[in-house]
Each structure stands twice: as C-alpha cells, then as structure tokens.
Amino acid sequence: GENVEQHPSTLSVQEGDSAVIKCTYSDSASNYFPWYKQELGKGPQLIIDIRSNVGEKKDQRIAVTLNKTAKHFSLHITETQPEDSAVYFCAASPGRNAGNMLTFGGGTRLMVKP
Amino acid sequence: GAVVSQHPSRVICKSGTSVKIECRSLDFQATTMFWYRQFPKQSLMLMATSNEGSKATYEQGVEKDKFLINHASLTLSTLTVTSAHPEDSSFYICSARDLGSGREKLFFGSGTQLSVL
Fold first, then answer.
1. Are the C-beta atoms of residues A4 and A71 closer than 8 Å to each other?
2. Candidates B1, B103, B111; nearest CB to A96
3. pLDDT (tens digit per residue) in A94-107
4. Model pLDDT for residues A52-77, shown as the tens digit of each residue
C-alpha cells in the first residue's frame, strides 16, 4: 500500500517568512495530492490540491509543487501570518482504481511567531 | 468547498454507555463517507468507509461490533460507539466526497471529541 512521509514534524518561523513542508510517497500510481490545515479541536480543511498532470499550483500565498519522478511534493506558504499556525497534513491517493483512498502524512505543526 | 456537518462537537459519557455521532453532507450528496480517529498530536487513522445503502467496510483492527456505522441516506452517516470505555476516548472525524467538485476532493466535518469517564 501507499506510504506517505512528511517532514518536518514541527516548524517554527517568524511572521513574514516562508514555510516549506515536504512529503514523499511510495506508490507510483498515486495521482492526487491534497493538503489540509487543521486547527486545534477542528476537522482538517482542504487548502490546496494538485493532480499528477500538473507540476505546480498556486493560490495566493500558498503553492504546491510535485515531482513525480522523485515521488515528492511540497507545500510552500509565503509571507506567513500568525493565523497560519496550525497542523498541516499532506495526503496521496492512487485514484479510482483504489477507491480514491487517501493516505495521510504524519502532520507538521507550524508555529508562526509574531 | 462542500460543507460537512458533524455533531456533537464534544461528548462526555460514562463507561458502558453508547454514543452516536452524526455526519451530514449539507449541500451535496455523498454515497461514500469516511470515519477517522485521531489521537493527540497524531495523524488521522481511517476506521471505516461508510457506503449508502450497504454495509460499511472496516479497516484492519477496527471492531465492527464496537463501532457501528449506518449510512441510511445520501446525506447522513452515523457512527455509534457501543459500550464505550476510557480507551475509546479520542477525536473522531467524518469526511465525504463531493462528486460535483471532482471525485478526489475530500471534505471533513469539524470532529467530535469523545471523553469516556
């Protein structure tokens, strides 16, 4: 089955700096890669996703890059703000043949210091 | 994005009692919903896949008689923790796919913190 590893487990940045979270996956059949933000006591919120036919996707201060050859993808947050502090999870899905099941990374606790 | 509503957000119960958690898709129909369990500072662990009109599919190690799942309509799935014990205390989260947003997109409810005394 799919295995997703996420690094770092914790990340502390100064407000205004950029934050990068990296994930690797094992199943070359995976073709969908979402990122979720989870605030304390709440459910995960989908913030951005990318499909395997795209190398990069951007939405305002958030961007995701995908390297299918190396089987890794990254989340980039620019101009970080205190409200970006949360736990971020990456995930990978092998698509319809596997019921679109998501495998999650271990999570990254991001702390943005004002 | 699509809205998934989960209730209650927090429940405290005595050991031995049963607790029901509801998960509703508010603005879309969901033939499949998923139930996850999350321990503090850990990732989400898939417990079971809930299929409308049929039996749920449980992940290895999850007791189906302990965690009863009912998916009676296209907008509602329920998880009942039967004869709850302190070790069942956890954060339970449901999710659903909005096929209209693209088959892959998965949206989560706000979670239920279960505390068993």
1. no
2. B103
3. 766 555 678 999 99
4. 888 999 999 999 999 999 999 999 99
> What's the longest Cα–Cα distance across chain B?
41
Instruction: Show the CA angle centred on residue B107, arms to residues A112 and A56, nearest 5°.
Output: 60
User: In this structure, which amino acid lies at residue A91?
Assistant: A
Q: Which residue has the tokens 């990318």?
A: A50
Whether residue B43 and residue A96 make contact (CB cut-off 8 A), yes or no, is: no
Q: Cα–Cα–Cα angle for B61, B66, B70, nearest 5°?
A: 105
Q: Do A43 and B1 touch (CB under 8 A)?
A: no
Q: Is B49 on the interface with A (CB under 8 A)?
A: yes
The secondary structure of residue B28, as a DSSP letter, is S
All residues of chain B having their beta carbon less than 8 Å from the beta carbon of residue A93 are: 104
